[in-house]
Amino acid sequence: MMILPLLKSDFYRLVRSTYFWVVSVLSVLVSEGFTLIGILAGSDEPTPGAGRVWQTHAQMLSSSLLVGGLLLLFTSILTVRIASEDTERGLVKNLFAGRSRRAGYYIEKLMMIAGITAWILFLNVAVMEVMLAVLGYRYAQPEPWGRTILYVALMLLGMFAMGALVAAMTWLIRSKAFSMTAGVLVAIGIVNSVVSLAAAVLISATKMKWIGTLAQMTITSPLEQLGRQPDNLFVTLGAQSTTVLPDLSGTAPTWGWPLWVFSLVLFTAWIALSVAVTLLANRRRDVC
Length: 288
Known about the structure:
single chain, mainly alpha, 12 helices, 70% helix
């Protein structure tokens, strides 16, 4: 199955659809809206007592775009729609003339999800930059562009990992409602909190310290850490102590890796797992 023609067709349909633009506008209004409300209310000053100043560019991006998992939420909404649309319309039955062509179809869909993920992120970054520039915000510690680009790239990789996971669930379970609900729970951090709490209980009851490491490998754990420690990308943080319960706020990567390496490895692993599940589980399944 030719990937490029399908990709062109899907993007053509996407940009002509109402829901794509509605979700895009909502992502900006909600994400930037919360930041603006906090600023106007005086409760979101980046540096208390220092006026309109963020310490670093990465701190601004994390505080404005990663808090609350809002961008993950809108990515999940668009992903479920894209992953289920062909099945709902019956179009997928005509596309699958043979089982050997299915891999190309799912790869094309994942490429499309990567595209809309980039769109949602870059749209919000651009609007946030303009809004804060107009409001007169500045940065106390100017940082190299390479560092900012790396931070945005990690955000993008994490959002795509989320999209790939939600798409895999949609194609595997074939329930739009279930996939949407699961995506929302993961995006807003409920799943990560439940896993961390369960790990704390198990460690306390069984003394199996390695469970704490597994709890830090959820898909939103690196994103939470990028949001909480945006200026520590290159700092090698020590492994979590095995003598205490897991930190439920998710503040320290395991294995003593720098935060950017920890995020890169975990996001890549989740993407690889999602792609493998998508291709293997749907290789011979009926389309209806």
